[in-house]
Amino acid sequence: MAWSIFSNPFALSTSSETEASPSSSASTSAAPLPSPPKVNRFESILQDEERYQELQYPNVEQVPGCMRLLDEFLMCYALAPQLRSMYRFGEFRDCTWKWEDFKYCLSLKSEDEEARRELWVKRRAEWWAKRRVSGSSEDVWDVRSEPLHNFPPLAAEEISSESSTT
């Protein structure tokens, strides 16, 4: 069977298709087309985050400067945040991602202002999308697909009042 734009190259070929002429194969039997690719969860979350970050940083003045990012990095290693992290999680806080933000800001110095804003928006959207996909320490409850049977349980007086009225 000759390949054409009307045939599905991924469909299983049968002997009847191989014997038919190329012009009749497209008109007589249409092979099912492959389903469109599905957008995975990360891609859809990334698109949502990009829209949100565009609103968060509408112009260049809202994009943090490199000195502010350096200050945030140094404040991350201060005594109070590290002790809080040790108390809550049993380990010191890792601030390398703040250092990476600072280095990224330095690498954007050669870009023009609008390109710097767009690149910063894209970076923040990717960071938030990864964070949303990976889950949170607050994700301790499982979502129920259906409610529990007989919940909340009826009190004894409610059961007696319902049976006396019926």
TrEMBL record:
Q: Where is the composition biased (Low complexity)?
A: 11-32
The cross-references to InterPro entries, in alphabetical order and at most eight, read: Pants/Emi1-like (IPR021475)
Report the Pfam families cross-referenced here: PANTS-like
Region annotation (Disordered) maps to 1-38
The organism's place on the tree of life at top rank: Eukaryota
PANTHER family documented for this protein: UPF0545 PROTEIN C22ORF39
Question: What's the protein name?
Answer: Early meiotic induction protein 1
